[in-house]
Prior knowledge:
The chain is of the alpha/beta class. The chain is built from 14 helices and 5 strands. The protein is elongated, with a radius of gyration of 32 Å.
Amino acid sequence: MYLHANAKLGLAGRYALVRAIEEGLSLKSAAAAFSVSPATAHRWWHRWLAAGEEARQTLSCLFDRSSRPHRSPRRLAPELEEAICACRRATGWGPRLVAGATGFAHSTVWKVLRRAGISRPTRAAKEPANRYEWPCPGDLLHMDTSRYARFLRPGHRVTGDRSQRSRHWMRPETRVGYDYAHAIVDDHSRLAYVELHDDERAATVTGFVERALAFFAEHGIVAKRLMTDNGFSYVKNRSLRELLASHGIHHLTTEPYRPRTNGKVERFHQTMAREWAYGLAYRSHRRRNQALPHWLDHYNRHRPHSSLGGRPPISRVHNVRG
Length: 322
């Protein structure tokens, strides 16, 4: 069924209009009753009269007709259109380069390619989602780091003033560095632990992991596996390797250039950035950092999690498998 996007009446309204005229209402009165022009009421009434019994039963006579003309004398011959399409398929060029190669106008080439459905390159097929969830808390912990720029005063995103932006960033005293948010998320419960540090060096990573394991142990979670990317401070960190070995934790790494393997903590960083780092206006990075523990407690204990059926992560911490 084809209905114009800006049509005043839908299919039910058009049928009601012609039924009202059949029952004795004049065209002018019916048009006023259905808030359309008399010309519109005249068009649908006479299409109804000219239609056959089958068209009336299926209401196909009340569909919008295509505005495409019956004849297009200025349209290119099929063999010329095929030459344009062949050039596009062979080279992968856009309309302008194809136009230069075939000698036709750019607008003509674009219309030909659009009618053929090849005006845009075909998108690569997306890999199917490979979702997984370990059965118990602690079976797998996801770890990653995110970086947030420090600031001494709100920027133009908050104040709306861009006049001092360039000169402000050129002064050396305003370059205050970055805060590194180290995060670990439990695969089953999504319980998260985050700390802010000045760097992501090996000693910092090891100390963070040690405190994170103590945090999860306080909630009755004994870690068995830890997944990270292939960062130098993870895979070449002797102190981290010794710490994991002392706790009997198996260290897993993701495939290169495959962040989706560690997707739960990647998604957590997106949520944290949207709701904590950029969700509110802070006077400085220190105020932003002071708000992190409050947001993290809200995330773990109160915030509904879509993948947990609208429940917070803490609701899964003490669950026992059936």
